[in-house]
From TrEMBL:
May play a role in the regulation of metabolism and signal transduction processes. PANTHER family: FLIPPASE KINASE 1-RELATED. It catalyses: L-seryl-[protein] + ATP = O-phospho-L-seryl-[protein] + ADP + H(+); L-threonyl-[protein] + ATP = O-phospho-L-threonyl-[protein] + ADP + H(+). Belongs to the protein kinase superfamily. AGC Ser/Thr protein kinase family. Residues 13-26 have a biased composition (Basic and acidic residues). This is Protein kinase G11A. SUPFAM superfamilies: Protein kinase-like (PK-like) (SSF56112). Keywords: ATP-binding, Kinase, Nucleotide-binding, Serine/threonine-protein kinase, Transferase. The keyword Nucleotide-binding applies. The keyword Kinase applies. Its EC number is 2.7.11.1. It comes from Aegilops tauschii subsp. strangulata (Goatgrass). The lineage of its organism: Eukaryota, Viridiplantae, Streptophyta, Embryophyta, Tracheophyta. One of its GO terms (molecular function) is ATP binding. Residues 1-59 are annotated as: Disordered.
Length: 470
């Protein structure tokens, strides 16, 4: 069943009502490039700080100085608006909004301020997409997903105050590599962090649907952050306990030796603390150990928790052509498996510097996705494990695709990730830590992201900020 479509209101009052309502199952019908378009001059509205207090206690961001700055401002002024930000430069322009680098006045804190023109969204029937993104951002609390610090509306604009990533995106970072490709170790790092982010989204009942290097931002510390959720699908999710024949059967063999006894490297297969468990009772026997023959320890059969929106279905045609899953193109209806298809395309592009089914034009690309077999270039050399993972993710039948049954839990067991300690990946050293992004890089990124629609250009008029569509 396709997602419900909500007619756009015809006036600003209708827009305000829509922006305050809690809708579910939102959809969009366009093939997307990136962030957005909006306009008009603005005056500050008092409708601003409704979500701040609820969002100010996220565990993984609890010591963030930006939260403290926002709290101080809330105490001092009680509301937030454009007057509280100094807009420094445009970071991106996409389908529903324009993103600026903005400094919170009176602090040294930088934010990504996404500005959306309400009348433009209504006229293009994209208001529901903007609301979908805001509602999803309000749900998130994860190291590899964005933090929404606050949101507010003015007479004409809707604004999201989000985390700023100074390292650009993975598309720009890949093109800076000597071969325009990432090494396999670097690709594994980025794909693993994206996989954990997608796993978290699926647990919340969110299907991302727009994975691509341009939407993977690089934080100051070199770790990643997914961005742009206006094409995402919200759906229900039913946690299930799936009984496995053995916990250890699906796991890759673990080596023995000194490393397994004492290593605390996050990339080690089995750190020292994993050798024993405080939940495992010690078996004490009265028989002398020298007279007993060691018997193999049998692992109990334990159920596995699977939280995956496997029953979700949508008929919307959304995404980027080179990343679209076959079921979307065929109009068969799609679910969470589309995210695993895009993960396969994503890994392929990181390793080879191009996507596997790209044709001379969009129509040829779509035809190739549906009918062309997967081929790997001879160069660069890529391991069998990486190619095998890509094959599993790029199965054209969604029900047979890797991840379709147990979600990310299936994919994390693949030999490509052998040796990766998932619990400590957040503290693993990234392949590289980005330097400050220069103006030319930002200009190129903005030009690349402006593929459709219009952008909001701002200018100062005394103490006021005015926006104009161009």
């Amino acid at each position: 069943q396709d997602e419900p479509k909500t007619p756009a209101p015809t006036n600003k009052k209708g827009a305000d009502e829509l922006s305050r309502s809690k809708e579910k199952g939102e959809s969009s019908q366009s093939s997307k490039s990136s962030i957005g378009d909006y306009s008009t001059s603005t005056s500050i509205s008092e409708d601003s700080y409704g979500s701040f207090s609820a969002n100010g206690s996220r565990p993984h961001m609890s010591k963030d100085v930006r939260w403290e700055a926002m709290k101080r401002l809330a105490i001092q002024q009680g509301s937030l608006g454009l007057k509280n930000f100094k807009l420094l430069k445009q970071l991106g322009c996409g389908d529903i909004g324009t993103v600026y680098l903005a400094e919170l006045v009176g602090s040294d804190c930088m934010f990504a301020l996404k500005v959306m023109d309400i009348e433009y969204l209504i006229s293009r029937k994209k208001m529901l997409r903007a609301q979908t993104e805001r509602e999803i951002l309000q749900m998130l609390d994860h190291p590899f997903l964005p933090t929404l610090y606050s949101y507010f509306t003015t007479d004409n604009l809707s604004c999201l105050v989000m985390e700023y990533c100074p390292g650009g995106d993975l598309h720009v970072l890949r093109q800076k590599q000597p071969t325009r490709c990432f090494s396999e170790a670097a690709a594994r790092f980025y794909v693993a962090e994206v996989l954990l982010a997608l796993e978290y989204l699926h647990m919340l009942g969110v299907i991302y649907r727009d994975l691509k290097p341009e939407n993977i931002l690089v934080r100051e510390d070199g770790h990643i952050m997914l961005s742009d959720f206006d094409l995402s699908l919200r759906c229900s999710v039913n946690p299930m306990l799936v009984r496995c024949s053995s916990v250890g059967r699906d796991e890759p063999p673990r080596p023995s030796g000194p490393c397994a006894e004492s290593c605390i490297d996050p990339l080690c297969i089995q750190p020292s603390w994993a050798n024993s468990s405080c939940f495992t009772p010690r078996l004490v026997s009265s028989t002398p150990s020298r007279t007993r023959r060691a018997e193999p320890v049998k692992k109990p059969s334990l159920p596995q928790l699977v939280v995956e929106p496997t029953d979700a279905r949508s008929n919307s045609f959304v995404g980027t052509h080179e990343y679209l899953a076959p079921e979307i193109i065929r109009g068969d209806g799609h679910g969470s498996s589309v995210d695993w298809w895009t993960l396969g395309i994503f890994l392929y592009e990181l390793l080879y510097g191009k996507t596997p089914f790209r044709g001379p034009g969009n129509d040829e690309t779509l035809t190739n996705v549906v009918s062309q077999g997967l081929k790997f270039p001879d160069s660069p050399a890529v391991s069998y494990q990486a190619r095998d993972l890509i094959r599993g993710l790029l199965v054209k039948e969604p029900e047979l695709r890797l991840g379709s049954r147990k979600g990310a839990a299936e994919i994390k067991r693949h030999p490509f990730f052998q040796g990766l300690n998932w619990a400590l990946i957040r503290w693993t050293a990234p392949p590289e830590t980005p330097k400050s992004v220069d103006a030319s890089t930002l200009t190129a990124a903005v030009a690349r992201k402006k593929k459709e629609g219009k952008c909001l250009e701002f200018r100062m008029n005394g103490d006021d900020i005015e926006f104009e569509l161009f």
